[in-house]
Specification:
heterodimer; A: alpha/beta; Four Helix Bundle (Hemerythrin (Met), subunit A); Rossmann fold; 434 Repressor (Amino-terminal Domain); 3 domains; eight-stranded mixed β-sheet; 9% strand; flat; B: alpha/beta; 12 helices; 8 strands
């Protein structure tokens, strides 16, 4: 998701590293590039201005010029400042002992509140809560049905009423939750413009009635400069507790995260990374800051992998990895594991340096399925020693897997690239040990 | 942290009119456009999501202009505005001859950009023009999308072809084209599911929908409108590139212009892809759809 910004910063830093000594003027050059990178990432221009000024003040100081590796120092300053702006640590949902706890979702139209409501319900259920979804969007056609469908698809009850008074709905939802032992209600409100006074008043009234434990501002991760305006006004009106950035599975660079955080001071708590009900991730500022700076998000990747890969397979893989044996059979096992972990593109973004190495290589889930078919059509011997794959074997495999010989060739090429990548990673040190599986 | 925040919050109090006012002051003092004025002009563009590159280029063009005639406040801002209007208008093509009915319009875009709502408004506009309009609910993915379109169809007095959630969107589109031909509709508008332009499989699905339509009407869809949310940042340009690659996009519909977002990204889109902006969405009621007006749009950037 932060791929482009990462690539660009990478280039900037390579230039910085290449220089023996930093001068005021080349720091300024680098910061001009950083400014551009941040602006293109949709960070609000005022936030950028402040950010650059802060970094400059720190970077041009003596501590940097006198340090042994000035390039590293500047990177550290930029990283620290990014972290500083994003918030230092992950802030969890603030659910108390109210009965029921209430989570209120608010935001502009189309920011993804209803989808998020479903994801949050699943998240809370996993934590042992018993959530109830409340349909409080009485304006948009079929909004209530949408939440009902979402609820039934994940097996979470939805409180909905044919009623145009939102306050009444919320009151009855509270009663219903108490009577039926739901410990948390998630209220999905109508999308509204921050400049719509009447609608904002409604939101205040809902918040007051519910005594909401957690008011979440839901913002589209693709939002541009206006993020500061909407976030500021929503915050002024309803004093929200946290932010959820949605649609972060696209290639938007998510600069809105920085902007919103900067103008409201409120933490970003989750990011939405897909349309499925489990595609919600806690927001870890340090990880995102790392990702922006091209260090890769090893920690996220590891955690995600751990939940999907069973330990034994991981261990076996690690051994192979160390011995630099990596047959097509292993490749196949890897594909199975990877499929469990979610879209490949997301995963690649988290691996340090992978963006660079894989540039131009098609990373596409459908490719996985095809690769599977091709490998399945090989004999065990072929999988173990791919070098024996001559023309006629390749032809047979293509026929057997319903693909073309070119596809078989391409897979073998990719397999070779992968082998090479692993060697590089091993030489690069560190990475292989940190990761429980071969990628 | 606090100091950064408070500085920033103070900074935000400075409004856009202050920015433009700043340029005005500079000019009354001196007939030259100084660097500070240009920087402020650039900030107006940046704050509207025009984007760094486009903003730089536009400013560069202004800088290289002969400055001798620039003496008053108005002239520099006005020259600049005129330039932007020209850029936007340059993509407007003369209206194409209407096809043999039904004319097929496909509405595409990322999730939450406002496709379904826009279709309701567009249908209403067309039925007011005494056109017989058919809507196709080819968003079979999002929960509630079909019901939502059904409500709009009723409000706009348009007909509807739909299937159940989870069915093949291309099949719905195909049925709709057939129905439009048989029942002699003037216009068929197809509501597609929101899709992020990075999802290869969903972009393929979109291509398939259009291919299937072409089996029935060779030159359809006659119009493919890409819906862009005015709050979108620089990702809008990537969206436009990818969608234009997957489909013959013929124009942009800019939605949610009734907030504080200026939708400046369309300047970048227009400049790079030459796509005209056709309509703008300015509210939630059924007649809140307007034809795009370049000079109004540009005025709003500076407001």
């Amino acid at each position: 998701m932060f791929q482009e910004i990462t690539d660009k910063l990478d280039a900037v830093f390579r230039r910085l590293r290449g220089q023996g000594k930093l001068t005021e003027s080349n720091i300024a050059d680098a910061l001009r590039d950083v400014r551009r990178v941040l602006l293109e990432a949709d960070v609000n221009y005022k936030v950028v201005k402040q950010f650059i000024a802060d970094v400059q003040a720190k970077a041009v100081g003596r501590e940097v010029l006198k340090s042994i590796t000035p390039g590293q120092m500047v990177i550290k300053i930029i990283f620290d400042e990014l972290l500083h702006l994003l918030g230092e640590s992950h802030v969890p949902l603030k659910l108390g002992h109210s009965f029921p706890n209430t989570v209120l979702l608010a935001g502009l139209q189309g920011s993804g509140k209803t989808t998020l409501a479903g994801k949050l319900a699943v998240f809370l259920r996993q934590r042992g809560n018993s959530p109830l979804l409340v349909a409080a969007d009485v304006y948009r056609p079929a909004a209530i049905q949408q939440l009902q469908v979402v609820g039934s698809s994940i097996g979470i009850p939805v409180f909905a009423q044919v009623e145009s008074d939102v306050i009444k709905i919320c009151q009855e939802a509270l009663d219903y939750a108490r009577k039926n032992m739901f410990d948390t209600i998630i209220v999905d409100t109508a999308g509204r413009l921050h400049v719509d006074e009447a609608m904002m008043d409604e939101l205040i009234a809902i918040k007051t009635l519910l005594q909401a434990n957690e008011v979440l501002f839901v913002a589209d991760g693709m939002t541009g400069q206006d993020a500061v305006n909407t976030a500021k006004i929503f915050n002024d009106k309803i004093d929200f507790d946290g932010v959820v950035l949605t649609k972060m599975d696209g290639d938007a660079r998510g600069g809105a995260a920085l902007s919103i955080r900067a103008v409201t001071g409120k933490p970003i708590k989750f990011i939405g990374v897909g349309e499925k009900s489990d595609q919600l991730e806690p927001f870890y500022p340090d990880r995102i800051a790392s990702r922006i700076l091209g260090k890769g998000d090893v920690v996220s990747l590891v955690e995600r992998a751990q939940s999907a890969v069973d330990a034994e397979t991981a261990h076996k893989m690690q051994q192979k990895f160390k011995q630099r044996e990596f047959s097509l059979e292993d490749f196949f096992d890897q594909l199975q594991q990877i499929k469990k972990m979610g879209p490949l593109q997301d995963l690649m973004g988290m691996i340090p340096g992978a963006n660079k190495m894989l540039k131009g290589m098609q990373v596409d889930d459908r490719g996985l399925i095809q690769a599977e078919a091709i490998i399945k059509s090989m004999t065990p011997q072929e999988r173990r020693s791919p070098q024996i794959l001559n023309g006629s074997r390749r032809k047979r495999i293509a026929l057997g897997s319903g693909t073309r010989i070119q596809d078989v060739n391409r897979l073998l090429e990719q397999y070779k690239v992968l082998q090479k990548m692993m060697k590089q990673m091993k030489q690069g040190g560190g990475l292989a040990r940190k990761m429980p599986f071969g990628w | 942290m606090l100091s950064v925040l408070s500085k920033l919050q103070k900074g935000l109090a400075k409004t856009r009119s202050d920015l433009v006012g700043g340029i005005a002051r500079t000019l009354t003092r001196s007939p030259k456009i100084d660097e500070a004025a240009l920087e402020e002009l650039e900030e107006v563009l940046l704050s509207s999501d025009v984007g760094f590159e486009t903003a730089e280029e536009l400013i560069e063009q202004l800088r290289s202009k002969d400055r001798s005639g620039l003496t008053t406040t108005d002239s520099v801002v006005e020259i600049f505005k005129a330039h932007l209007i020209e850029l936007l208008d340059s993509t407007v093509q003369p209206p194409r001859p209407l096809p043999v009915p039904p004319q097929v319009i496909s509405i595409i875009g990322v999730n939450g950009s406002g496709k379904t709502t826009i279709i309701g408004k567009l249908a209403y506009r067309l039925t007011r023009e005494k056109k017989k309009v058919l809507l196709a609910a080819a968003d079979t993915f999002r929960a509630g999308a079909i019901d939502q379109l059904a409500v709009w169809a009723k409000r706009a007095e348009a007909d509807l072809v739909s299937s159940i959630t989870g069915s093949d969107p291309a099949a719905v589109a195909f049925d709709a084209v057939r129905a439009a031909k048989n029942r002699q509709h003037d216009i068929l508008i197809i509501d597609t599911a929101g899709r992020l332009h990075t999802k290869t499989n969903l972009m393929e699905e979109l291509k398939k929908i259009h291919r299937v339509i072409q089996r029935e009407i060779a030159d359809a869809p006659h119009e493919v409108y890409l819906v862009i949310d005015a709050t979108t940042g620089q990702n809008g340009l990537t969206q436009a590139r990818q969608f234009a690659e997957a489909a013959q996009v013929t124009g942009i519909i800019l939605t949610k212009l009734d907030g504080t977002a200026k939708g400046g990204i369309v300047l970048a889109i227009t400049r790079e892809l030459g796509l005209p902006i056709r309509y703008v969405g300015v509210g939630e009621t059924i007649d809140d759809l307007e034809l795009f007006d370049a000079s109004q749009f540009v005025e709003a950037l500076f407001r």
